[in-house]
Write a structure and sequence with these properties.
The complex is a heterodimer of chains A (266) and B (285). By secondary structure, chain A is α/β, with parallel strands linked by helices. Chain A is 46% helix and 17% strand. Chain A has 9 helices and 7 strands. Chain A has helices spanning 14-20, 33-49, 62-67, 76-95, 101-110, 116-123, 127-147, 206-221, 245-262; strands at residues 2-4, 58-60, 158-167, 172-182, 193-198, 227-232, 238-242. In chain A, strands 1, 2, 3, 4, 5, 6 and 7 form a 7-stranded mixed beta sheet that branches. In chain A, helix 4 packs across helix 6 (116-123) and helix 8 crosses helix 9. The longest helix of chain A is centred in the middle third of the chain and has 21 residues, at 127-147. Chain A is globular and about 55 Å long. Chain B is α+β, with helices and mostly antiparallel strands and 285 residues long. Chain B has 10 helices and 9 strands. Chain B has helices spanning 12-21, 33-46, 59-66, 80-96, 103-119, 128-133, 137-157, 160-165, 217-231, 258-276, and strands at residues 3-4, 55-57, 168-170, 175-179, 182-189, 193-195, 204-208, 240-245, 250-255. In chain B, the strands form 2 sheets. A 6-stranded mixed beta sheet of chain B has the order 1-9-8-7-6-3, with helices on both faces. A 3-stranded mixed beta sheet of chain B has the order 2-5-4. In chain B, strand 4 and strand 5 (182-189) form a beta hairpin. In chain B, helix 3 (59-66) packs across helix 9 and helix 5 (103-119) crosses helix 7. The chains are: A alpha/beta (266), B alpha+beta (285). Chains A and B meet through helix 4, helix 5, strand 3 and helix 8 of A and helix 5 and helix 7 of B.
Chain lengths: 266, 285
């Protein structure tokens, strides 16, 4: 079900090639699968939905489903690192080159009004912390350079793709953001590939998170994606998940369990 | 109000395109001149003093104010998010017109053109072209990435051969109706695709939105229909407005009739009342 990357250091574009695979090995799409998964979810969520109102829905994400809700607020440095590296993902995909990782990423962040608080916090760092952050961002960018170079534009690479599904009449919302997405929707053959890029280490819950991302995409588009992968820019580790019925049904169970726990009925 | 949904039994792009061309919608009529007159009079009476600046009420502002939120007075600045729709729509035009082969190529070509117009002094100061011309590589990359994502979602969401054959106009300027007697107040209808741009062909509008549909989505789509009707008094109003939420993979079609337009007009007046209240002298960009 899950194919771990080989233990040696991956070569350039390993994660992208692993995601796309060979065209002739792509599975067919079951046109009834998405409807069946949604019906299963709706049935199993009906109990928890009774205690929720559409005006204040329960919000879930792949991370909160797989790891539980956050118990501590991430540090400013952690948030800044993630946001800065996220900007570099776009630059790597578009220009295939980054000369000054920290300068480029910070300028990109400064151009986004919704990140104003984080930008202020970064500028408020003392000299030593700022230097440490810059060095970390450069190190994370080296991992991106190994994996995101020269993706053909014909694969339709797109970044920060937001996904949102509404369940139980809007009482439960599951949101996700795919760091990178490739491929076009097909009605016959699975062709969408999703890449989750994290500045954290991969952990035991990574496979579960990928399964939930695959489930969200299946319910959103009506077709299961081909593969999902996670890339840690902290370690260079990658995990690739071939999406199949087992992965998706496991994800349904995880979403139901998380909704029950976070909805307060379990 | 009559709301329609795409068929779940068909591929999404086909069912969304069907929703645009479905012929079962009621025959369209022109917007009632009496509604137009009353709306103009009421809005002119409610308009805040001109010295407070201009007010542009789009669907987002109207539904936000009706939902009890204050419109915030944030001055407009260019950002990757502010540029994504303009560049994304222009890139989609290039793609469907066959002058670019991928969304990334289309967006990059569009940006080159926009920058060139600015460099040749064909664009006013503060324009998108000037901002992009001075943008460092990091900013430019995020701008391109945002527009590519927007463009790709629009391109894969529709069956474009049918849309083009249907005589669609893409990326035309948003409809803007200035209130007679108080032209510093205007209604803005944000839609991305217009089918039936000539007087003889029934109009259908497509509005691409972020997030997922909500309880205020019909008010959003009705507002788009109202502004479109107000700006084209000489032709029938849109017969349907289709909202498309790529992030959710959802779409809704709102059939437009006299009641729909009255509903939207009441919402616009109520929203302006909130703006005009002494404690809320805030202006939308």
């Amino acid at each position: 079900m899950y194919a771990m990357a080989p233990p040696h250091h991956p070569t350039s574009t390993d994660v992208v090639l692993a995601l796309r695979g060979h065209r002739q090995h792509r599975p067919s799409i079951d046109p009834n699968l998405a409807g069946g998964l949604r019906a299963w979810l709706e049935d199993d969520l009906s109990e928890v939905a009774r205690s929720l109102e559409p005006s204040s829905p329960l919000l879930l994400s792949p991370r909160s489903v797989a790891n539980g809700p956050l118990i501590a607020v991430p540090s400013v440095l952690g948030l800044a690192r993630a946001a800065l590296v996220n900007c570099l993902v776009a630059q790597r995909l578009i220009f295939h080159d980054v000369t000054h990782p920290m300068d480029d990423a910070l300028s990109a962040l400064e151009a986004q009004p919704e990140q104003a608080d984080l930008v202020d916090a970064i500028h408020g760092l003392d000299q030593a912390s700022f230097a440490r952050l810059s060095a970390e961002v450069a190190a994370h960018d080296e991992v991106l350079a190994r994996h995101l170079s020269r993706v053909p534009t014909t694969w339709l690479p797109r970044t920060n793709v937001r996904k949102s599904i509404s369940l139980a009449g809007g009482r439960i919302i599951v949101n996700a953001v795919a760091s990178v997405e490739f491929g076009t929707p097909s009605i016959t053959t699975a062709s969408i590939s999703l890449l989750d890029i994290t500045t954290s280490n991969l952990d035991a819950a990574t496979s579960s998170r990928l399964g939930v991302i695959a489930l969200i995409e299946t319910l959103r588009s009506g077709a299961a994606p081909l593969r999902c992968a996670s890339l840690s820019t902290a370690t260079g580790e990658i995990k690739v998940c071939d999406v199949d019925d087992v992965v998706l049904s496991d994800a349904v169970r995880l979403v139901v369990d998380a909704a029950r726990i976070q909805g307060g009925i379990s | 109000m009559n709301v329609r949904y795409p068929s779940a039994a068909l591929p999404f792009a086909r069912s969304l395109t069907d929703l645009l061309f479905d012929q079962e919608a009621p025959l369209p009529r022109r917007i009632d001149p009496a509604l137009r007159k009353v709306l103009g009079q009421r809005m002119a009476r409610l308009a805040p003093d001109r010295t407070n600046g201009s007010i542009s009420l789009d669907s987002f502002t109207v539904t936000k104010v009706l939902g009890g939120e204050l419109a915030t007075a944030t001055p407009f600045t260019w950002s990757p998010r502010a540029a994504r729709r303009i560049l994304g729509l222009a890139a989609t035009q290039r793609l469907v017109g066959g002058v670019a082969s991928t969304p990334t190529e289309a967006v990059r070509a569009e940006i080159e053109d926009v920058i060139q117009r600015a460099n040749e002094r064909l664009a006013r100061s503060g324009s998108l072209g000037h901002w992009l011309a001075e943008a460092p590589p990091g900013v430019l990359a995020v701008v391109i990435a945002e527009a590519v994502t927007y463009d790709t979602e629009l391109v894969i969401g529709l069956e474009w051969d049918r849309v083009i054959d249907g005589g669609a106009s893409l990326g035309t300027a948003d409809a803007l109706w200035a209130v007679p007697g108080a032209p510093w107040v205007s209604l803005k209808g944000r839609r991305d695709l217009v089918i039936g741009s000539t007087a003889d062909v029934p109009r259908t509008l497509l509005a691409v939105r972020g997030g997922r549909p909500s309880t205020s989505s019909t008010a959003d789509l009705a507002h788009v229909a109202l502004v479109d009707g107000l700006t084209h008094p000489d032709r029938p109003h849109a017969q349907r407005v289709v909202g498309y939420w790529p992030a959710a993979g959802r779409a809704i079609g709102l059939d437009v009739d006299g009641e729909t337009l009255k509903f939207a007009a009441r919402n616009a007046v109520t929203a302006l009342e909130q703006f005009s209240a002494p404690s809320r002298s805030l202006h939308a960009a």
